[in-house]
Design a protein that fits this description.
By secondary structure, this protein is of the alpha/beta class. It has 9 helices and 10 strands. The strands form 3 sheets. Strands 5-4-3-6-7-10 form a 6-stranded mixed beta sheet, with helices on both faces. A two-stranded antiparallel ribbon has the order 1-2.
Amino acid sequence: MIPKELLKKIRRIEIRTSHIVNAAMAGQYHSTFKGRGMEFEEVRNYEIGDDVRTIDWNVSARYGHPFVKVYKEERELTVMLLVDLSRSHQFGTSHQLKRELAAEVCATLAFSAVRNNDKIGQIAFTEQIEQYVPPKKGTRHVLRLVRDLLYFEPEGVGTDLAAAFEHLNRVTTRRCVVFVVSDFQTSGYEQPMRIARRRHDVIPITITDRREVALPDVGLIELVDAETGEIVCVDTSNKRLRLQYATDAAARAEERTRAFRRCNIDSIDVSTGESFVEPLNRFFKARKARL
């Protein structure tokens, strides 16, 4: 039996994200993923008026006259959400847990997909695959995904992005748009992500909290590692310690950004307690401009 408070939270997310899709993000998803078809179909002789950017130079050189690439328009996309449910997502200091923010972001993307008649599926993971929901259409399906993101109790505590990418490749038979929603507080995911990128349109969405970036000066505090259970006592009044904490956080963020760039992947950063609409809109507008 789902608690009444959870049902209210799901309803609030439905109302809020539906408004975002209909107002703040109207048309952004469609124009980003519904432009030129994503699947190559054939080459044909160049005709006056064809976009020179579609010329296949290898085939043209082989036959001595220009050929252009023809793409099959995909009228129905499959969108997959790879969502991190590790213990580190049960953290938040801005009136919102990272897991709750992830649910809102995923709901917005899912409602955008459904509005455009696309299928939406979900893989929830920790250090193991916790749940796989096959892609389907419809508002009820989206609400089921949101419910699971808020209510589902994972067995694992850590994070294994490599296993999530491997499972994605096993269960998908066609190219997908893949949103990876995680805090990326792990390692060893770059190579599996690069392999997934060859087949899918992979888009990482990094979830953070402001206290993971900077410590406040509040004296002695106990910090607990959510995934390992390790407890440490920290003197936050130590200015050098706070500076080192911020420096280490910045270094991790920079290495994560470099990993995405090495894989030629665009990413989105969102933080608890802040609006995620603008980061999503910036991403969609930048992607649309390149297309």
